[in-house]
Design brief:
The protein is mainly α and about 70 residues long. It is built from 2 helices and no strands. This is GLABRA2 expression modulator-like.
Length: about 70
Amino acid sequence: MQPAARRWSPPAATEASPYAMPSPVQPAASKGTKETVKNALSRWGRKVGEATRKAEDLSRNTWQHRG
């Protein structure tokens, strides 16, 4: 019979470093998180729209002044 295989596991953070301190888990504010994501996507969408308009204007001006 073979002895049970021992698996290595990394030491806990507090054992590995005296400077690492576990902190309590904060409860998730799902509505706040959803609003944050919604606002971030909204800002991103506006930036993409603005960049698209600028690219279209540059393209239009390039073709108009080409010839």
